[in-house]
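Quick one, T. Sequence first:
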Amino acid sequence: MTLQNKQILLAARPTGFPKGSDFRLVTTPVRPLEEGEVLVKAIYLSVDPYMRGRMSEEESYAAPVALGAVMTGAAVGVVLDSKDINYPCGTYLAGEFGWQEYFIGKAASLRLVDPDLAPLSTALGVLGMTGLTAYFGLLEIGELKHGESVVISGAAGAVGSIAGQIAKLYHCSVVGIAGTEDKLAYITEELGFDAAFNYKTTRDYSAKLKELCPKGIDVYFDNVGGAITDAAIPLLNLHGRVPVCGQISQYNLEEPELGPRWLHHLIIKRAKVQGFLVRDFAAKFPKALQQLGQWYGEGKLKFPEQIAEGGIEAAPAAFIGMLHGENLGKQLVRIAPELPSPALMQ
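Structure tokens:
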């Protein structure tokens, strides 16, 4: 019997925040494999802020998703059928599967995952692109040094929560910024941040940052942009660094915000502001994953996850909720049980 593949397509380009009608669920037959290909059953799908940019018509660092095409996204899953002797049935792989139940492609373009080393979901998080983004953003772009003063916006999100913990491993003073009191409690009480504040209830970001960072800011890990970044830049110390990881406060605006001009602060402080993509560091992934795996195995990195149930149909709502800040840590969607039924393995 031919397998049927449920897929989520991009139905319309959003104006402002995406809504359910911007997506469309379809069912298509799974085609036969060609030589060198594998058929992978997705188990977990990651939904992330960068996907909002891929829904727009303008090209940024990658081409936009075409209308009527499967939404882009990373997933981890198990090989159900293979025409590559190096990747037999039962092998676990992670890669850009898109928002769908089944993926067909060359196994060599995917990443092998060992489910005995850590939970499968970590391949999309702390031991995947999320962890790598925090690692390289903080240590390579941010040039983090022991004992520095670090501020992280979006601190309760997937990347921010890991970046803050890495900074603590370097014995830094870490201030996090998040949007609910529960998130503030989590990052301070569970993840070890030294202080935090709620950007939704704080009226004067500059005054609060001065209070919590009396010695200034050496590294500002920017996940959100906007007014928070405007307040952080003037407080940079001499030779301060700003890794620009994301600008989530700007992604859903219908009109661009106007902010204060702060480039002169970079001259005065001889500071560095640099955007980055994690793929810039692909050659260093193995070493970084080894270090992240060691920290995780030693219990030094906690990884909050929020998993939406309901299969691929739950992806749009989980994605929209994440953009509204409803998640704590990594937002995942469970596409299938971790141990597929014997029938699926035939």
